[in-house]
Design a protein that fits this description.
mainly alpha, about 75% helix
Length: about 200
């Protein structure tokens, strides 16, 4: 019974996350989440204390999937550490371009921009998610420093901050402009400025 409840909860998170991604937190009601998951509205509270609780679970699910993909690319020893970082962002950029869904933006960016000033719980989860996602990049930068690909005086935390802030800014501008230009500009900066 407990396994079935957990399985159903995962379905609600998966389908509800899609609704949140499309419309945002405030524009997505609990009924829309439950309709997407194929359950009665009243059942929602068997799985989540509130819509905010659901949003945090959706953020965690999204982060875990992103992290699995990030770690897979950043541990591929066929490329150098800096090459792996370039490969990661090349793949992310190709994903946005191939889907052509620029107005969707990034789920974590979207919910952070919409809710961080309103919900301390969502703001804290966003902080946690961004830290988790960037730890493998910090590890990769350290490896690059250790093998001489980066200069010894390089501050890997400063590089990671610049990389993260540039990428997240590019995603926000991409969403506003509804095109890939900010992503391609980021890619050039990554190669010519950030990872030099």
């Amino acid at each position: 019974m407990k396994e079935r409840l957990e399985e159903k909860k995962l379905i609600i998170i998966k389908e509800g996350l899609k609704a949140l991604y499309r419309k945002g937190y405030n524009a997505t009601g609990v009924k829309e989440i439950t309709d997407a998951a194929g359950i009665p509205k009243g059942s929602f509270y068997n799985y989540f204390c509130s819509k905010e609780d659901f949003a945090v679970a959706a953020m965690q699910d999204f982060t875990n999937k992103e992290l699995a993909m990030i770690e897979e690319i950043l541990t591929d020893e066929q490329s150098s550490p800096l090459g792996r970082i370039e490969n990661l962002y090349r793949m992310k950029i190709e994903h946005f371009i191939s889907k052509g869904r620029y107005s969707f933006g990034c789920f974590l960016c979207n919910i952070t921009l919409e809710m961080a000033d309103i919900s301390e719980v969502i703001a804290a989860e966003a902080t946690n998610a961004f830290e988790k996602e960037y730890q493998p990049i910090i590890d990769c930068l350290q490896e690059a420093k250790d093998n001489g690909e980066l200069e010894q005086q390089s501050d890997i935390y400063q590089i990671a901050d610049l990389l993260r802030n540039s990428w997240l800014g590019a995603l926000v501008i991409m969403k506003a402009n509804k095109n890939e230009k900010p992503l391609l500009s980021f890619q050039q900066s990554l190669r010519n400025i950030i990872l030099r």
